[in-house]
Recover the amino acids of this structure.
């Protein structure tokens, strides 16, 4: 069976070169006589793997020295709680609600303190990103946003001006899709299962001065979830997801060798713009995200009826095109075009869309 044209929103395509390398090292990692999965996380060989993964990530993202990099578990979802638990020192934060994921994060934060919705685009069915209408209250602990909304296919192309208030961003579905200026954020987190590796790790990049001596909520915070503790233990307070970090490290090298994040950005916009261009002229399919808010990764659209959406998904499978069903909260269709989705997958999808449209016209 040839490799599928995989448009899944995550877990999603991993570069073939990375998979081949991991396969070649499966039974004997560099003369250790075992796979990385079988290796103690306290071994020298493993320490070298996690150190190299962090160093490579720091290079490709140009992460300043005053930021810590943490490899955590519990998915991006656990960070919805970890962020307020660690950072909500005045029990008051602001949230920009641009869709499914920031709404969930906001609801989670409401458990721990006052979480104000500073702007929301729910009234337009999250077809765009909401922007701040007034200056941010400088007494807030942080302002939170999800920079790329995976379900609705929208993205902040410019960051809001939060003055001196730290910006916290869920970058999950645009992490490593393009360069970001890390110094603009107080904290970034991302589930790795889109662009960075297999599911099971969440990367947190946090500015030193936000760590504090103890988490904002004090001793009730699960020890594991304390950012300072995790930073002081090099993400090894307990057993980390060793295999996942190893594969992430390989993906980071693949990105570096493929031209880094500038090259990723160029390739990704080229891919999604071909789809947006098609959708903008199509008489059958409609794009769901407003032009200025469109995502670099997740292209959302629909056919005129749920039945046609379903027929499109079924026909796609016959052409080895998978993962294009929309998220269950929105329905419709979605093509997620992460780094490891090759241009030829876009060729295949576009050819299929045109064929489908011609038979339904
Ligand atoms: N944030 C965003 C932007 C996401 O796309 C997702 C999942 N796709 C999540 C958070 C939740 O991630 P996880 O399943 O890793 O908890």
């Amino acid at each position: 069976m040839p490799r599928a044209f995989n448009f899944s929103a995550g877990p999603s395509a991993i570069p073939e070169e990375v998979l081949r390398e991991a396969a070649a090292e499966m039974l004997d990692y560099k003369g250790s006589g075992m796979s990385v999965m079988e290796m103690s996380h306290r071994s020298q060989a493993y320490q070298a793997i996690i150190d190299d993964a962090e160093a490579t990530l720091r290079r490709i993202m140009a992460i300043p020295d005053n930021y810590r990099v943490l490899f955590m578990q519990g998915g991006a979802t656990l960070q919805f709680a970890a962020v307020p638990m660690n950072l909500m020192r005045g029990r008051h934060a602001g949230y920009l609600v641009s869709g499914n994921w920031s709404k969930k994060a906001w609801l989670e934060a409401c458990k721990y303190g006052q979480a104000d919705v500073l702007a929301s685009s729910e009234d337009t069915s999250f077809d765009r990103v909401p922007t701040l209408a007034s200056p941010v209250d400088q007494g807030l602990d942080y302002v939170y946003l999800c920079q790329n909304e995976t379900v609705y296919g929208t993205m902040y192309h410019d960051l809001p001006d939060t003055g001196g208030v730290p910006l916290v961003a869920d970058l999950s579905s645009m992490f490593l899709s393009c360069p970001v200026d890390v110094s603009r954020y107080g904290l970034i987190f991302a589930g790795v299962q889109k662009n960075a590796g297999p599911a099971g790790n969440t990367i947190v990049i946090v500015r030193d001065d936000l760590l504090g001596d103890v988490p904002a909520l004090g001793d009730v915070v699960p020890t594991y979830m304390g950012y300072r503790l995790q930073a002081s233990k090099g993400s090894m307070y307990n057993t980390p997801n060793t295999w996942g970090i190893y594969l992430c490290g390989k993906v980071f090298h693949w990105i570096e060798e493929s031209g880094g994040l500038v090259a990723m950005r160029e390739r990704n916009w080229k891919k999604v713009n071909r789809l947006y261009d098609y959708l903008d002229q199509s008489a059958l399919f409609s794009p769901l995200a407003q032009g200025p808010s469109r995502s670099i990764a997740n292209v959302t659209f629909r056919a005129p009826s749920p039945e046609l959406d379903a027929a499109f998904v079924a026909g796609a499978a016959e052409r080895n095109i998978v993962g294009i069903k929309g998220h269950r909260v929105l329905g419709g269709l979605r093509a997620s075009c992460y780094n490891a989705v090759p241009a030829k997958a876009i060729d295949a999808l576009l050819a299929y869309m045109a064929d489908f449209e011609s038979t339904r016209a």
Notes: The chain has nine helices and 14 strands. The first helix runs from residue 16 to 24.
